[in-house]
Specification:
With 161 residues, the protein is an alpha+beta fold. The chain has two domains: 6-55, Winged helix-like DNA-binding domain superfamily/Winged helix DNA-binding domain (Arc Repressor Mutant, subunit A, Orthogonal Bundle); 60-140, 2-Layer Sandwich (Alpha-Beta Plaits), CATH 3.30.70.920. The chain has five helices and four strands. It has helices at residues 6-17, 23-30, 34-46, 79-91, 116-129, and strands spanning 66-74, 95-100, 107-113, 133-140. It has a four-stranded antiparallel sheet, with helices on one face. A hairpin with a 6-residue loop joins strand 2 (95-100) and strand 3. It is elongated.
């Protein structure tokens, strides 16, 4: 893990809030010249600290009225079953996030659907027909409280500028 300094931390905080800031705005956010800020941003990308930049799209604006958090326990847990399940998670657009976890379940997924009938059809096909699923437990999201995915970086800074 590469150490970050205070300027890197301020830069990361800024781009986590808005990845389309101008060079001038980035420089002002981290206390550097625009050119220096852009060089640091390029280095943060090259070092893998910034994995990718993406837009947060409103599910409801696209007609996805249902968002569910689903805990999945597979019926068999051999390497092949787990690897196939992981790959299918990556290849299934309705699954917006997926985590292989420890504890009572094997995976936690976030799934979107236009309505409960569509969600029911999805679960039947994905969990019953395609995978050896022992159980899955669904929690329907009532409202999104925080979805930005921003990581705390301020306290990670190793030295001040």
């Amino acid at each position: 893990m590469r150490k970050i300094d205070a300027a890197d931390a301020r830069l990361l905080e800024a781009v986590q809030q808005d990845a389309h800031l101008t060079a001038e705005q980035l420089g002002a956010a981290c206390g550097l010249s625009p050119t220096a800020a852009l060089k640091r941003l390029k280095r943060l990308r090259a070092d893998g600290i910034i994995e990718r930049e993406a837009a947060l799209v409103s599910p409801r604006a696209l007609g996805y009225a249902i968002m569910a958090v689903v805990m999945v326990t597979l019926d068999r847990e051999d390497r092949g079953v787990i690897d196939r399940f992981k790959q299918d998670i990556r290849n299934t657009p309705q699954i917006t996030s997926g985590y292989y976890i420890t504890g009572d379940a094997d995976f936690i997924l976030t799934i979107v659907a236009r309505d409960m009938d569509e969600y029911d059809d999805f679960t039947r096909e994905f969990f019953y027909d395609r995978h050896p699923t022992k159980t899955f437990k669904t929690c329907v999201v009532m409202s999104a409280v925080k979805t930005n995915g921003a990581l705390p970086v301020h306290d990670l800074a190793q030295s001040a500028i």
